[in-house]
Amino acid sequence: MKNTKPTSPVKLTKLTVKEPAELMDFLIAKMGGMSRNSVKSLLSHRQVSVNNKITTQFNFPLKATDTVVINSSRGNIELTHPKLRIMFEDDDLIVVEKKEGLLSVTTGKEKEITAFQILKNYVKKSSPQNRIYVVHRLDRETSGILVFAKNRETQLTLQENWHQIVTKRVYVALVEGKVQKEKDRLETWLKEHEKSLKIRSYNTDNGGQMAVTNYRRVKYNENFSLLEIELETGRKNQIRVHMESIGHPIVGDKKYGSTNTGLGRLALHARILEFYHPVTEEIVHFETPVPREFLKVFHK
Fold first, then answer.
1. Cα-trace Rg, the chain
2. Is 27 helix (H, G, I), strand (E, B) or coil?
3. Which InterPro entries does the record associate with it (predicted)?
């Protein structure tokens, strides 16, 4: 006979939000002396839900009348992977933060692990019938926020209406050299070279795809600039190509002109994603910090 330990009754603590706040600050204020690390532990173990949806995002924005529930028992299904962290999950979506070096999805040639495979295995632990659907991608060496759908209908809604649904999409990039302009809008046509498979930027329409990138200079010194970048279009390698075209390639991007390999990675991170939830139609906002290694070059 199987030896089983008696289980403690599950306790649910229900809290109502009175005024706008970030989830971490709200829990610290309400949970009587709980440390930041303790709150982070609750979040990482999927013990906190907002309006009946589990969230692991410490800076999740709360608004008045939201309901926050803390579960005394840890969620049975956890995703623990060094390259992938779940930020948000409900019945329709999974929002993750991907580390650099992990493919979003396979191209058919690679046999290495992908974000898609990791999440597919994760959802099947709850039920073998569960599936994952690709919505968009990040390059292998780009880190940041990535969205997957949990059903075909949500996938199609997001893919077919991506530019109407997404209200904010912000990247940060560390580029070589001092960018002279504080901000600029780059509008060119991108076309892939058949032999090199490298995408090139053209100032006139030569049959390529029009690409629009807006950037703002956040920090700089004589050798590097940190840029905040917003996309109006989402072309393949768009940011990387546009940065090379203005003479400031992204650090670590050997393919597009970088000679600096000091960080050991491509210095591009998808930092903020905000969009209308395809089912609830509410705006959901996800934000990650600027990678520390991007900032170290300004502290020397």
1. 21
2. helix
3. PsdUridine_synth_cat_dom_sf, PsdUridine_synth_RluA-like_CS, PsdUridine_synth_RluC/D, PsdUridine_synth_RsuA/RluA, RluA_PseudoU_synthase, S4_RNA-bd, S4_RNA-bd_sf
Counting other chains too, the contacts that 257-260 makes at CB distance below 8 Å and 24 or more residues apart are 258/176, 259/176, 260/176
pLDDT (0 to 100) of residue 111:
74
Q: What is the CATH number of domain 10-74?
A: 3.10.290.10
Residue 290 backbone dihedrals phi, psi, to 5 degrees: -65, 130
Pairing of strands 268-276, 143-149: parallel
Q: Right CATH number for 170-269 from 1.10.510.10, 1.20.272.10, 3.30.2350.10, 3.40.50.150?
A: 3.30.2350.10
Cα separation, 75 vs 47, in Å, equals 6
User: What is 258-287 written as a DSSP string?
Assistant: ----TTSS--EEEEEEEEE-TTT--EEEEE
Mean per-residue pLDDT pooled into runs of 10, the chain (300 residues): 42 87 90 81 83 85 91 67 88 93 82 90 84 93 96 96 93 97 96 85 91 96 96 91 96 94 93 93 91 90
Is 139 in the active site?
A: yes
